[in-house]
Amino acid sequence: MRILWTIASVDPASGGPIEAVKQMSELLNSRGCISEVACLDSPNAPWLKTFPLKVHALGPGITGYGYSANFVPWLKHNARNYDCAIANGIWQYSSFGTWLALRNTNTPYFVFTHGMLDPWFKRTYPLKHLKKWLYWPWADYQVLRDARAVFFTCEEERLLARQSFWLYKCHEVVVNFGTAAPQGNPTLQRQQFLLQFPQLSHKRLFLFLSRIHIKKGCDLLIQAFAKVASLDDSLHLVIAGPDQTGWQAELQQQAEKLGISQKITWTGMLSGNVKWGAFHAAEVLVLPSHQENFGIVVAEAMACGTPVLISNKVNIWREILAAKAGLVASDDLNGTTQVLHTWLTMSPQEQQRMRQNAKYCFTQTFEIHQAAESLLNAINTNSMR
């Protein structure tokens, strides 16, 4: 099977969707599928040099929407070379262009919305939502309506997607989603992380690893950490991720006012062995997001046996809670403080059991081999629909 993944950008700093495309494609390729990517990046984008899949960079896209005059003609001309296309995300020209090129053709296309229909966006950005309504009927509504299937990564995402627009019609399919288990030596990876950040040795680390963005609840985490930091002098918060919106300076000022700036380390984006080393060095991953479709970073933490302290707006929270692989609370200051305090008051034996549960939960539910099988079954079942 030849699969074309369409996406706005393959820049690893753009978040979880491109990491999911990369990992899923590599596994599918090992099963005899051929995966390629069409994106709106400039052909000179530096991250293309290290991306492991064949990429057709058809940009640069214009404005945040990413319009490129090259995208649709290229896709129309080359569609016959692929058995299907999978559009990743909405609200960008990569998905709308996929619809323009492939509707009413023999090449079926599918869509991963990646949580972009979550009603949190409607509540948080009402003016933006009104703007989206202006082009929803003639753009993304049709993208979803005409797809052979719209893939959701969990039942929670599927149900939430129905709440953003009353004009909504698509063939919904829930597929398993996941990530690959880390490769390499955990001890050496931990050492590599601590060599890069030696001030963190012998600290009890709470790890936030994601984009620094308002929807991730970074401000709540800093406030909550300030409330528990005095319980143990060795407690330290690691905030790892790219500052996409320029929010970090304000968050650092917040930490300064709360008197905990010396107990927070800002690492920037981590990758490779250093990233895995951060998971292994941390006691827990903390992600108090206001909206999180799946949270690949949550699955990655559990793959390392690191429990996760998350909000109930991370869509896989039910699976985490059922497996006792972490702690879950509301996405507010009380909830975030609650999960930090609960972890700190658990006995060593309880903490160890949760580490074991986290590893088991990943293996049984979020390991990528199961996800790849689920995706292939969904493609084959719905291609001729």
Notes on the protein architecture:
- GO terms for molecular function: glycosyltransferase activity.
- Keywords: Transferase.
- Residues 202-359 form the Glycosyl transferase family domain.
- With 385 residues, the chain is of the alpha/beta class.
- It has 16 helices and 13 strands.
- The protein has two domains: 2-178 and 368-382, 3-Layer(aba) Sandwich (Rossmann fold); 186-366, Glycogen Phosphorylase B (Rossmann fold, 3-Layer(aba) Sandwich), CATH 3.40.50.
- Strand 11, helix 12 (296-303) and strand 12 (308-311) form a beta-alpha-beta unit.
Distance between the termini: 17 Å
Tell me the strand percentage band. 15-25%
Return the CATH topology of the largest domain: Rossmann fold
Total individual domains: 2
**What structural class is derived from the secondary structure elements?**
alpha/beta
> Please, how many helices?
16
The neighbouring-strand order within the major sheet is 3-2-1-4-5-6-7
Largest sheet: 7 strands, parallel
State the low-pLDDT regions, or none.
none
